[in-house]
Amino acid sequence: MTEWEKMQAGLMYNDFDADLFDRRVAAKMLFREFNRTGDDEVERRQALMRQLFRKVGERVWVEPDFCCEFGKNITLGDDVYVNFGCTILDCGQVTIGEHTLIGPNVSMYSANHVLDADERIAGGLIPKEIRVGRRVWIGGGTTILAGVSIGDEAVIGAGSVVTRDIPAGVVAAGNPCRVLRPITERDKTGFVPEAH
Questions:
Q1: Which of 11, 88, 100, 3 is nearest to 54 (CA)?
Q2: DSSP-assigned letters across all residues of 49-115
Q3: Number of domains in the chain
Q4: Residue 188 lies in a domain
């Protein structure tokens, strides 16, 4: 089993493997090219995202500067918006559901280096999936750690550090991030978009 195959299976792998190094270089070449595109180069950006990510939905918009580790472990649903400065370390699978908004400078780290120093400096790393549900809003400057799931329609306050699962339909914030309250009908503002 290759180190990439171990990673895909969620098993401990050697982070210093030569093939993984090459895969990181390939991802960097793609996201750097993506980051040099202009807002008017929509088709070019879409083509680069299709090369970089495992799967990318329709009407996805990612602002530069974006960076990731491999790209091939990232899935973005339809109508996802990723604001400036997003970093995704995707040794574990990272899935972002449709109609989700990612604020500026959000980081997602699906990696867990092992705790023992000898094993860590030898390259021991354990990937853990991150799942962000549908219709979620992740506030700016949030950090999401390995193994976390965020439920549908949750709102994560700016600057949060999400260390454990967050259920659907709640406002959560803080370091560590914790549920503050459910989102209810009282949160509706009456906003109705104008027809164009």
A1: 88
A2: HHHHSSEE-TT-EEPSS-EES-STTEEE-TT-EE-TT-EEE-SS-EEE-TT-EE-TT-EEE-EEE-S
A3: 1
A4: no
For the chain, which ranges sit under pLDDT 70?
A: 196
Q: What CATH number is attached to the domain comprising 52? A: 2.160.10.10
- Summarised one tens digit per residue, pLDDT across range 116-150 is 999 999 999 999 999 999 999 999 999 999 999 99
Looking at residue 196, what is its pLDDT? 67
Q: Which helix (H) or strand (E) holds 171?
A: strand 170-174
Q: How many CB atoms lie within 10 A of CB 182?
A: 12
Residues identified as active-site: 113
Domain that holds residue 93: 3-182
In this prediction, residue 79 carries a pLDDT of 98
Q: Residue 123 falls within a domain, yes or no?
A: yes
Between strands 177-182 and 170-174, the pairing is antiparallel
* Cβ atoms < 10 Å from Cβ of 38: 9
C-beta of residue 166 within 8 angstroms of C-beta of residue 150: yes
Q: What is the pLDDT of residue 193?
A: 86
